[in-house]
Amino acid sequence: MKKIRTRFAPSPTGYMHIGNLRTALYAYLIAKKDDGDFILRIEDTDQGRLVEGATDIIYDTLKACNLSHDEGPDVGGNYGPYVQSERMKLGLYSEYAHKLIELKKAHYCFCKAEDVEAQRQAAGNSFYFVDPCNKLTQDEIDNKLKNNEEYAIRLNVDPVGTTSFNDEIYGTITVENKTLDEMVLLKSDGFPTYNFANVIDDHLMDITDVVRGNEYLSSTPKYNLIYEAFNWDIPRYIHCPPVMKDEHNKLSKRNGDASFQDLVSKGYLPEAILNYIALLGWSPNEDREIYSIEELAKAFDVKRIGTTGAIFDIDKLTWMNGVYLRNMDIDKYYELVKPYIYDVVDNHLDYKLIANAIHDRINILSEIKDMISFLNKTEDYDVDLYNNKKAKTNPELAKELLPKILESLESLDTFNNDEIFNCLASKAQELEIKNITLMYPLQVALSSRSVAPGGATAIAEILGKDETLNRIKEAINKLK
RNA sequence: GGUCUGUUGGUGAAACGGUUAACACAUCGCCCUCUCAAGGCGACAUUCACGGGUUCGAAUCCCGUACAGAUCACCA
């Protein structure tokens, strides 16, 4: 069997959005499942739409996701991406377009682009372009060429009959040829159209599986006409359903929807993002959702890609990101979280203790900041906070309990979570109250919050004995 | 408007003619518990857009309707 080769072929016209990334992921997985090659090709044949830096974003995103491509032009010892504008300099596309003219599968078109556009505008939806240049005699053509008239090259289309193709996901799709127009292959500026360059490169790069968004479903018959004109093998087509923002709209940067970069900067892990988007439109053959990229490649099956657009659900991604954080190797977790902790907290505090306290409480890294900001200094709070139904506490009771807690803790030599807890637990027993009744006022005194990461005693350990006692005294004063 | 494609709960989805229609997120309960989480347990679609048909039997097959999306460029 032929080696599987897939490609990701984005245009550098903006940011890398989630739908795009998912298409790249699927292309990658399909190749890797069978030990095939994954290729990156930048399709920048539209000079007008180039966006500065867009190629770098694509490149960096793929790198961050570990979706590395297997070949390409040499760039400082690494594989760069193939870039169509570079390849064009080789005269490649023009050569193939002219070859099609020789084969009588295409023809010169001397129409002005603006004129065609004007006709289209005038005719509205029902416009079907019939190229008058089709009727030009060879002499007329030679003459125009000799006069250096600008020209485009258009594909010849026989309007009778139908064209069918098979898509791995959508099945066999048939369209009538009369709905296909004589599309431009080579633009008058000498650049190939996307459609043409795409087919040429896919063939030249020996792409076996074309993976792309299903917006290309309708234009695929046109691609096949080109393959057939050259008598080339048609690749396997895999058209993926879109990733939606809501029922009606696709996810897009234009609407301000989250891009990969946005998600990462909010504290989502690339592995989690990849894992999550793999499940948008594809489902595994087992009851499982957490997959590393290697596991995905193993489990991936094109046949299990769905046909309907999937709405991107940030809540589920958030949950999954939390799973990744919780399952992560603990040392790796410490290192990951350390900068986020010291970004808000004084660095004489032990970041590992803090990391432990928030371990089961964060789903995304950006939540850390608010969660631990009280560690630096006490925050303003109302004594009403001492009212707690579950703990059965109120400011009066806190006023009574806090001095007792202070007294107990002052006598402690080793100030760690276990010691503090045991000390206070026996104090609670002695006072014949539930642990929570004693702990809750301490929590408020130490954290200034009704909800805190970790138990009150864990926070005490993080703060250290001096600061803990200070905060308790501070709280007692506040209650006077 | 033509053409193409699709339609299972709030969301992602499974089911490949016969199950009480999996599972996960979210939501809501309960348990655990020094708060909150995490974890455990449970609830949550009399029903698979709608209407016909085929069949002993349909979410699954066929036809129609509705709705949605895509596409009709010298954009990609």
Give a verbal description of the structure.
With 480 residues, the protein is mostly helical. It contains 20 helices and 14 strands. It has helices spanning 18-33, 54-64, 84-88, 92-102, 113-123, 138-146, 194-204, 220-230, 260-265, 270-278, 293-299, 314-327, 330-342, 351-358, 368-372, 395-410, 417-431, 435-447, 456-463, 465-479, and strands at 5-8, 37-42, 74-75, 78-79, 82-83, 106-109, 152-155, 162-167, 171-176, 184-186, 209-213, 236-240, 243-244, 310-311. Helix 10 packs across helix 12 and helix 13 (330-342) packs across helix 14. The longest helix has 16 residues, at 18-33. It is elongated. It binds one RNA strand of 76 nucleotides through helix 5, strand 9, strand 10, helix 7 and strand 14.
Number of helices: 20
The global form is elongated
Question: Distance between termini?
Answer: 83 Å
- Unreliable stretches: none
Helicity, as a percent range? 40-55%
What percent strand? 5-15%
Which class do the helix and strand fractions yield?
A: mainly alpha
Arithmetic mean pLDDT: 92
